[in-house]
Each structure stands twice: as C-alpha cells, then as structure tokens.
Amino acid sequence: MRSGRLTPRILGSAIVMLVAYAAGCGSSGGRYPVDGRLTLGSEPIPNTVVSFLPRDGGTPGVATTDRDGRFVVSTREKRGLAPGVYDVVVEIIPPQSSPDPDVEGPGQQPSPPPRPTVPKRYGSPETSRLSIEVQRQPNTVSLDLENR
C-alpha cells in the first residue's frame, strides 16, 4: 500500500517543471514580446526608428514603424525584450530622394504625402521623457508623442 508522501523523484520533477515555467513561459531566452503603435496626437508616425534603451545596462531593442505607426521590437535579430525599464528614443527615417522616371521634366518628383514631424526632444534619452516597463508577459505599448 502507498503512503500519501511524495517520493524524491516526483518532488524533483515537479520543482524542475515549476522553475522552467516561472523562468520563461511564453518567452524566448528571457525576452518577452513587445509591440505597439507610435502616434503624434492621434496621427500614426510611419517610417520611424524607435529605440528602447535599458536603464540597467542590458541589451537595447529597436523597431521601425510601418505606415500605420505600428512596430514590433527586436534585439540582435530576436524578437522581444528582457523584463525591465527602458528609455525610449524616436527618430524619423529621412526619405530617400531618387529620380522618378515616370515623372516628366528633369529632376521633378511627385510630392510625398506630408509626414508628422517628431519634436527634437524625443531624439535623446536625456530629453525624451518616454519610458516603458517590460513585464514577464506579452507587452503592447502605445507611444503618443506631444507636439511641444
């Protein structure tokens, strides 16, 4: 007849499973998914580099916004960030100018659609005042910049 006690083998297996679950359930190498949207007022900011600089000196992350201002953060070609607090820096990618062969006239190009201008203060971690905290779970952030 068996007693109600746990054998060392069962107890050891349970501890290993619990530690593995707590250490990285849903993450990739201690990273957790981070995605979001970048806006100025309520307007999306496309073609913009968003950098995530860890306050603890860890690995920074980077993302590029799409035409709707949406982004997914990665570090060294791996998606996600380690848990912690990150300062956020925003820099618009300058448009590439290239001659358009379909436009008549030398050097004439169609005007690109107007793009929001990111205030300069968001280009430096010392002045941006933007930060996020990455939790041990999937993270979705909304970065709404102020135009001042």
What is the fold's blueprint, element by element?
Elements: H1 8-24, E1 34-40, E2 43-44, E3 48-54, E4 61-64, E5 70-72, E6 74-75, E7 78-79, E8 84-92, E9 130-134, E10 139-145
CATH-defined superfamily = Carboxypeptidase-like, regulatory domain
Alpha carbon gap, first and last residue: 76 Å
CATH class: Mainly Beta
CATH architecture classification name = Sandwich
In one word, what is the shape?
Answer: globular
Radius of gyration: 23 Å
Number of helices: 1
- How many beta-strand segments? 10
Strand content: 25-35%
- Overall pLDDT level: 80
SSE series: HEEEEEEEEEE
Q: Would you give the CATH topology?
A: Immunoglobulin-like
Please give the largest β-sheet.
4 strands, mixed
Please identify the structural class as seen in this structure: mainly beta
* Number of spatially distinct domains: 1
* Helix share, percent: 10-25%
Flag low-confidence runs: 6-26
